[in-house]
Amino acid sequence: ALPISHVPGLAPPTCCDRPVDSMAEEDFSVVRAIIEDKLHQEFHNVPTKDLPPRMQPRQLPNLQDAFKIDWDDWKSWEWMQPGWKGVKMHSQCVISADGSAEIRSVWK
Fold this sequence. Notes:
2 helices, two-stranded antiparallel sheet, single chain, alpha+beta
């Protein structure tokens, strides 16, 4: 393996012709392209079972089966039941003269 300073296509950094950030981005893109090419040459048409563990596909859980949402759980909340004697939040939608709306709420 060649040191990064000797990689073909990777120009040595210069100080004054462009900002440091753009030099780093260009250098990174060149190194990345070289590594991607080497990986492609080494692992193209290799069965997934023969790949290194880090490159093998993982079985991720199906999000539809991860959990079921109980959309009716609010029906069991004690403050939503008829006859609740505690404080309740009262909400109002107020339409202003300019046509805008505002939601107001108060605990009573």
